[in-house]
């Protein structure tokens, strides 16, 4: 099952690092907050880049959630 990206909007500070690291999935709005290009399901080929984006998020606002979980 594919993971999904989840943004904790209460923690995200909108500097757009994740969109720089994962441009295939994310773009940013005028304030730098990430905007999904699709439904946030991570294709297997982008798992490594998604994990890097999660690990480098300075606000710990980005995480991967399993597709079978309902708290994404
Ligand atoms: S890297 Fe983290 S804090 Fe920065 S815009 Fe993305 S989710 Fe928000």
Helix/strand/pairing class, anyone?
A: alpha+beta
Hetero compounds: iron/sulfur cluster
CATH architecture classification name: 2-Layer Sandwich
User: Would you count the extended β strands for me?
Assistant: 4
Shape: globular
**What is the domain tally?**
1
CATH class: Alpha Beta
Q: Between the first and last Cα atoms, what is the distance in angstroms?
A: 14 Å
Strand content: 15-25%
Query: Main beta sheet: strand number and arrangement?
Result: 2 strands, antiparallel
Radius of gyration: 11 Å
SSE layout:
Blueprint: E1 3-7, H1 17-21, E2 26-28, E3 34-36, H2 47-56, E4 62-66
Bound molecules: iron/sulfur cluster (SF4).
Question: What do you see in this structure?
Answer:
The chain has 72 residues and is of the alpha+beta class. It has a single domain, classed as Alpha-Beta Plaits, CATH 3.30.70.20. 21% of the residues lie in helices and 22% in strands. It contains two helices and four strands, in the order βαββαβ. The strands form two sheets. A two-stranded antiparallel ribbon has the order 1-4. It has a two-stranded antiparallel sheet with strand order 2-3. The two termini are 14 Å apart. The structure holds iron/sulfur cluster (SF4). Iron/sulfur cluster (SF4) binds at residues 7, 12-18, 34, 57-59, 61-62. This is Ferredoxin. Pfam families: Fer4_15.
Question: Descriptors for this entry?
Answer:
4 strands; binds iron/sulfur cluster; single chain; alpha+beta; 72 residues; Ferredoxin; 2 helices; two-stranded antiparallel ribbon; 21% helix
């Amino acid at each position: 099952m594919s993971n999904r990206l989840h943004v904790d909007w209460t923690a995200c500070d909108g500097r757009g690092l994740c969109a720089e690291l994962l441009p295939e999935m994310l773009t940013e709005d005028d304030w730098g907050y990430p905007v999904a290009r699709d439904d946030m399901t991570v294709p297997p080929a982008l798992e490594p880049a998604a994990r890097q984006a999660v690990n480098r998020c300075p606000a710990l606002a980005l995480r991967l959630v399993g597709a079978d979980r309902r708290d994404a």
